[in-house]
Amino acid sequence: MLEEIIEEVKDSMEKAIESLRRNLGAIRTGRAAPAMLDNVKVEYYGNQTPLNQMANISVPEPRLLVVKPWEANLIPEIEKALIADKSLGLNPSNDGAVIRLPIPELTQERRIEITKVARNRAEEGRVAVRHARRDGIDLLQQSKKDGDISEDESRSAQEIVQKLTDEYVNRVEEIVKNKEVEIMEV
User: Fold this and answer.
1) CA–CA distance, 99 with 79 (Å, rounded to integer)
2) What DSSP string describes 76-90?
3) Average confidence score pLDDT of the chain
4) Distance from C-alpha of 94 to C-alpha of 102, rounded to nearest angstrom
5) Of 6, 68, 157, 174, which is the most exposed, with the fewest CB atoms less than 10 Å away?
6) CA distance 112 to 108
7) What distance in Å separates the CA atoms of residue 6 and residue 14, rounded to the nearest whole number?
8) Which regions of 30-169 does DSSP assign to beta strands (E)?
9) Apex CA 136: angle with CA 134 and CA 147, to 5°?
10) What is the rounded CA–CA span in Å between residue 158 and residue 143?
11) Ranges of H-type helices in the chain
12) Roughly what angle, to the nearest 10 degrees, separates helices 2-25 and 151-184?
């Protein structure tokens, strides 16, 4: 019973870390990364479809993304979606077969703005970890109330959950610190 609750808490915290990594991966740093286009949705037969489900996205050079749609007739729609996403700030160009997205150099002011966004996403990650802790402690207290575990077992399990929380919050800090270094690199 206790192991299941602790495992569930650990699972939730791991998902929070993965979500943070995905969110930070979508932040533009001056270096090309396919994850930058994860949030781009394209009109496809009346539905908003994620770009990565309708095209190959590659990084042939450190500052260039290449989008190769699976259907050539989608190029204008994809280009329109890329231009419409102002958060990317990219200017697509196409040659009829692929769309090239040069990644411009970031200004110092823009780098500072982006680090603020990264810190906000890190705070969301910390909150998600704390929610997992709260849910775990609630489960432990409910198990104690139901008589499934003793007071001592509940207390020691809560200490384990708190140690996990501290560990995962530190991982969030480390991840965002690395992202900030990446963003501020010139």
Assistant:
1) 7
2) HHHHHHHHH-TTT--
3) 89
4) 11
5) 174
6) 6
7) 12
8) 41-44, 47-50, 55-61, 64-69, 93-94, 99-102
9) 120
10) 12
11) 2-25, 75-84, 108-146, 151-184
12) 10
3-state secondary structure of 112: helix
β-sheet bridge partners, residue 99: 67, 94
Tokens in use for 21? 């990594």
pLDDT at residue number 55: 92
3-state secondary structure of 55: strand
Rounded to 5°, the CA angle 105-124-37 comes to 40
Strand duo 64-69 + 99-102: pairing: antiparallel
| Residue in this structure with the two tokens 């943070």, named with its chain if needed | 20
Write the CB contacts of 105 (distance below 8 Å, at least 6 apart in sequence).
Answer: 30
Q: Which residues contact 143 (CB under 8 A, 6 or more apart)?
A: 1, 2, 5, 149, 154
Query: CA geometry: angle at 44 spanning 39 and 50, to 5°?
Result: 20
Tens of pLDDT along 90-146?
889 988 889 999 888 778 888 888 888 889 999 999 999 999 999 999 999 999 999
Distance, first Cα to last Cα, the chain: 51
Two tokens at 18? 């993965």
The reported pTM is: 0.71
Dihedral sign computed on CA atoms, order 33, 39, 42, 45: positive
